[in-house]
Amino acid sequence: MNPGYILVVDDEPDIRRTVAEVLEDEHYKVVTAENAEAARDAFKKQRPDLVLLDIWMPDTDGITLLKEWSKNGAPETPVVMMSGHGTVETAVEATRLGAYDFIEKPVSMGKLLVTVERALEAGKLKRENVQLRREAEPAGFLVGKSKAMAKLREDIGRVAATDTWVLISGESGSGKAGAARYLHDRSPRRGGPLVEVSLAAIPAQNVALQLFGSEAGGRSVSGKLEQANGGTLVLHELADLDPAVQAQLNNVLAEKELRRLSGSDLIALDVRVITLTTQDLKQAVAEGRLREDLYYRLNVVPLTIPALHAHREDVPELVNFYRDWLVDHESLPYRRFSTSALNALRNYPWPGNIRELRNLVQRLLIMNRGEEISETEVEQALGAAPAVGPGGAPALFNLPLRDARDHFEKEYLEYHLQRSGGNVAELARLSGMERTHLYRKLKQLGINPRLLKE
After folding, report:
1. What torsion, rounded to 10 degrees, do the Cα atoms 327, 368, 373, 393 define?
2. Considering the entire predicted model, what is its pTM?
3. What is the CATH number of domain 137-304?
4. Of the ranges 337-346, 366-375, 438-447, which one carries the lowest mean pLDDT score?
5. What count of other Cβ atoms lies within 10 Å of the Cβ of residue 231?
6. What's the CATH fold of domain 394-454?
């Protein structure tokens, strides 16, 4: 196995050849480029683990190229600058722009090898730190002894060690993004990048640019697909894509290569795609909002994260799980939940799912009103929302389930909108809902935040 893939950029043939030979003798894989244009081509064909970059070149200088790569989605690739006319100011400028180190010419091969080894190790540590931060996030979506959670753990266990494409569905806040990160971190691609794209959050006119990148005016911008090369791409809310972009994405995934917008060269693509959705994508296909071929291409293995109200017997275990995690990782005070408090939480409908539960536990720990959390304190933290039970709201029990749920959600959201003065951002925080999903829910229930604000 090669210890690293290195791109050497220098306009002097003797230096390129000598540096490449020395590195290849150390079993590194090396590719060379004589100018900025050739360097861009090599970089987009396969992202290197390290770049040795000459500062003074005839077409575009190395500092400009360093700025370009740093801005266009490759800050994790360490760059070592080389120059025969180095100054302290140049070295400081290169370091400020993100260069790992600076080597003066004529290059000392001993120093070169030491610098290369350290730079590659620094890049590896940076990638490992990102992965460790992801692994430190609580995997609450897997907690619980219910049948629903046992099945989910079994299904995810089967898929995790594979390279299979996955479609994860579930309500907002149920843990879909955490499940995607969990699958990536336990897959053969765990050493590669994990790139998440929230399609609904990108203005429609910019989606294609964000996905595919662009080439204009001699400058190239890497899109999310290219940034995910060798790793995993996570797509949120596929049905929100414009039909033309859906067609383009389907072709790219089918051919396993892409062409940047306004670009001419094809770039080989090697990604695993995990799709997340709160919508019924089969219905989206039936309604013509989603291409059928794209749906079936991405829906290789379907996984469903159950809504928390469907396994409320797991609520006490989840509450204790997040309580312990927040105490250990965020230095919050330990507090014990009374039996009546846990019962109240078990009976709550959890419209914001696990995200709402985690936020509530965090809020209760921060308030720190004593060693024990009481039922009254829980009800106050929930905004005095009534628990669901035989005496909770008997008028609702005579309604069909969908109508009863809509009635509760309408009253719940209107209550918190009034509390927040009609501020939708604050409502999203209080309810634990994603802003995009929240706007759709308000529209569906006929709630106008402006009227409540007035």
Report:
1. -110
2. 0.62
3. 3.40.50.300
4. 438-447
5. 19
6. Arc Repressor Mutant, subunit A (1.10.10)
